[in-house]
Amino acid sequence: MDDRYLEPFIGYRLRADVFAANGTHLLSAGTRLERGHVRLLQVNQVVLRSKDVTAFSAEQEVSIKEAVSDIRHVFQSAVSGRKLPVDYVHDRILPKVLEMASRHAQLIDLLHLLQGKDEYTYKHTFAVGIISSIIGRWLGVRGQDLIRLTMAASVHDIGKSGIPSEVLLKPGRLTEAEFDLMKRHTRQGYELLLASGLDERTALVALQHHEREDGTGYPKGLQADQIHFFSKIVAVADVFHAMTSNRVYKSAMPFYDVLSLMWEGKLGAFHSHILHVFIKQIMELHIGKSVVLNDGVPGKIIYVSSSAPLKPLVNRQGEIVDLSREQQITIREWL
Fold first, then answer.
1. Among candidates 177, 182, 152, which has minimal Cα distance to 165?
2. What is the topology classification, in CATH, of domain 58-282?
3. d(Cα 208, Cα 190) in Å, to the nearest integer?
4. Is a pLDDT exceeding 80 seen at residue 42?
5. What is the spatial distance between Cα 137 and Cα 13, in angstroms, rounded to a whole number?
6. Which residues of 204-242 are buried (b: 16+ CB within 10 A; e: fewer)?
7. What is the β-pairing status of strands 290-293 and 53-54?
8. pLDDT tens digits, residue range 296-328?
9. Distance (Å, rounded) from C-alpha 290 to C-alpha 90?
């Protein structure tokens, strides 16, 4: 592969040792990739993918692990005291979520970092807080409203602290009775947040993040304007992260496949403007990134249109291909 398809990884840090096909050790985990490293990989025909590298420093990865641990503490406190340790969330978790949200260009890298079925509920809570805050920024939410949105998203699933672990962590499909029990986490979260002294707007996100625009969601089957704007944002973040994550009962899907399903309405009816902004911005984060098309030819994303954000312009070895016009050509793989 031409080394220009590895160039987007310059400045990233390897997550594991890299070996040539014959077993020769090429680079060590933690190496910050420079142009010389990229040439070494190209000579040895090593293909890197996004999951093989991270934009985060070792110190930042420690901070992320601490945030997940802090969220675990919050869930455990909610179980024992039936109240949210609000000051703890505000002082320890919220700053980490806001800091990570400010690094929105590394969102996909963060999702790779938070992969793993262990402690999924806590990782999911952290990720949804970050993604919701990023979406809020993209939609023009600022100041105290952004802080309130981020706070609400960071505790949106706190009601799951009251769901039995045998249901929460069941590796197979839930029975109808078990799913009814799982759905209670929305009301339980709402009541717990109100009892903890948080405002109605924050508590509504816990109650409404599974509601959908067409009334097919739960717990109340609300529609459109009946759902709070913050809840609509968190609904998008919640589904996107869940579907791109490895869970005890389902493996992760590639982010592009998830975006496509959301765009087609196959994962629920989301607010159209929020979803459109989210998908376009996520795709724009990938401008300059390498892909392989379904004809096996590598290419690079060069432009994302507003009208067809999932069908970008691709530089295919010097030829500009508009995927919105070329119906037979699709993206097969993201590198």
1. 182
2. Hypothetical protein af1432 (1.10.3210)
3. 9
4. yes
5. 27
6. bbbbbbbbbbeeebbeeebeeeebbbbbbbbbbbbbbbb
7. unpaired
8. 999 999 999 999 999 999 999 999 999 999 989
9. 39
* Count, residues in the chain: 335
Show the beta-strand stretches assigned E in the chain: 13-14, 18-19, 25-27, 53-54, 290-293, 298-303, 313-316, 319-322, 331-334
The single residue listed with the structure tokens 């839930």 is: 174
Structure token digits, residue 4: 């220009």
Q: Are 329 and 293 in contact (CB under 8 A)?
A: yes
The answer to whether 213 touches 239, Cβ cutoff 8 Å, is no
For the stretch 275-297, pLDDT in tens is 999 999 999 999 998 999 999 99
Residue 292, beta-bridge partner list = 298, 333
pLDDT higher than threshold 50 for residue 1: no
Closest CA to 72 of 126, 32, 19: 126
Sheet holding 331-334, edge to edge: 319-322, 313-316, 298-303, 290-293, 331-334
Percent of the chain with pLDDT over 90: 75
Answer yes or no: is pLDDT of 5 > 70: no
For the cut 70, the answer to whether the pLDDT of residue 108 exceeds it is yes
Distance CA(239)–CA(157), nearest Å, equals: 13
The CA R_g of the chain, rounded to the nearest whole Å, is 21
Cα 159 to chain center, whole Å?
20
Coil, strand, or helix at residue 180? Answer: helix
Contact yes or no for 154/85 (Cβ under 8 A)? no
Q: Where do runs of H (alpha helix) occur along 34-113? A: 35-43, 58-81, 86-88, 94-101, 107-113
Residue spans of the domains in the chain: they are 3-50, 58-282, 287-334
Instruction: Tell me which of 133 and 53 has the higher pLDDT.
Output: 133
Pairing of strands 25-27, 313-316: unpaired
CA–CA separation, 253 vs 267, rounded Å?
A: 13
